[in-house]
Amino acid sequence: MRSPRGGTGGGARLAAAMEHVELIPGIPDDVAVDCLARVPHASHRALRRVCRGWRSAAAAPSFASARAAAGANEDLVYMLQFGNPSAASDDEPKADDAPANTPAYGVAVYNVTTGEWRRERGAPPVIPVFAQCAAVGTRVAVLGGWDPRTFEPVADVHVLDASTGSWRRGAPMRSPRSFFACAEAGGKIYVAGGHDKHKNALKTAEAYDAVADAWDPLPDMSEERDECDGMATVAGDRFLAVSGYRTARQGGFERDAEWFDPAARAWRRLERVRAPPSAAHVVVKGRVWCIEGNAVMEWISPRRGWREVGPYPPGLKAGTARAVCVGGGEKVVVTGALDGEGGGGRHALWVFDVKTKKWTVVRPPPEFAGFVFSVASVRI
User: Which domain holds residue 285?
Assistant: First the structure.
């Protein structure tokens, strides 16, 4: 019989066995991973600092599957938000994640699953004003907007990995822009339209691959579209730029849209999709919804137009809404100003249960009650 010491293979296996350290002593690693998967996302930063094994387990692709299997997923809404001038004074107690020096425009996070609010740690110290955000997988990209010192559009891109809390500088857009359409479709983040530093409306577009950190210049749209909305098409794999206006028609919002066909690398027009200018658009389970002055509406077709699918968020001031779908289409989160007497300029959240067609009003702490310009959602 060959001695275990006589060959390099046996020695390597012995060394590997000696190096292996159980994630939780006395518990099989698969059971330990199941335990770690149930740790709330807010504690993941601390979890990764415990030891190398826990850090490796949390970074493995299978960790997300373990959280899903354990029913431990959490839905996070990332908001690019202005500071609230009516927030509590500095001498009042504040939570650790809501410091007295709240940024004029920064990244706030609402955990739809737990109801917790916080500031995103490690975010760039200065977020361009009116920057947009969009998510692909667990990555949240913050794009474009105005330089807060010059008030000129920028091409800056910052990318957050929501699963680890780490930020990186992304490849800049090819064209500085602000007030543009922005959304994820088919695994890429698309931007289109908006305006340049001379306030000229744009018809240029490009697509961002967050994994490769690279931009793909797209053909121009058929028309300039400033202040257009962005969303995915019904299939979820094509980008839609809705409405907007041309340079010569400031504020004259069009009632059409254009969607990008990636196979043909061409834009296609879509008529009569624009809801009233005050509406917020969102795609829910492959359907285009809008939240407007009387109800939640669903777009059927150019011929049939819109139909009502739910009541309007109670107490939401018209023209202030932003909307995002969470939980794979289970809920819609809307941000906006509180209407009527007693609002005091504060903003709130409304959570719509798609199944029951009921709204829940969420009143945030004062330091998180500022105007939200852009929203994105991530499931962790």
Answer: 278-375
Residues 195 and 166 placed together within one structural domain of the fold: yes
Instruction: Indicate whether 268 pLDDT > 60.
Output: yes
Residue type at 143? L
Residues contacting 188, CB < 8 A, separation 6+: 136, 207, 208, 209, 210, 216
Examine the domain organization and report whether 185 and 197 are in the same domain.
yes
- 319 occurs within a structural domain: yes
Structure confidence by residue, pLDDT tens digits, 106-119: 899 999 999 999 99
Give the 3-state secondary structure of residue 119.
strand
pLDDT surpassing 90 at residue 260: yes
Q: Are residues 359 and 255 in the same domain?
A: no
Q: How many domains does the structure of the chain reveal?
A: 3
CA distance readout (Å), 298 to 120, 280, 282 = 33, 12, 10
In a domain, 234, yes or no: yes
CATH code assigned at 171: 2.120.10.80
Burial state string for 289-307 with b = 16 or more CB within 10 A and e = fewer than 16: bbbbeebbbebeeeeeebe
Together in a domain, 273 and 136: yes
Strands, sheet with 229-232, edge to edge from the N-terminal-most edge strand: 229-232, 239-242, 257-261, 266-270
b/e sequence 366-380, b meaning 16+ C-beta within 10 Å: bbbbbbbbbbbbbbb
Asked whether residue 113 is domain-assigned, the answer is no
103/108 Cα distance (integer angstroms): 10
pTM listed for this prediction = 0.86
CA distances from 309 to 146, 296, 312, 320, 356 (A): 36, 6, 10, 20, 11
Distance (Å, whole) CA 184 – CA 35 = 32
Query: pLDDT at residue 4 above 70?
Result: no
Indicate whether 208 and 292 sit together in one domain: no
333 with 194, same domain? no
φ/ψ of 34, rounded to 5, equals -60, -40
Is residue 60 in some structural domain? Answer: yes
Residue whose token pair is 């699963």: 163
Shared domain for 171 and 234, answered yes or no, is yes
pLDDT digits (tens, 9 = 90+) for 178-218: 999 999 998 999 999 999 999 999 999 999 999 999 999 99
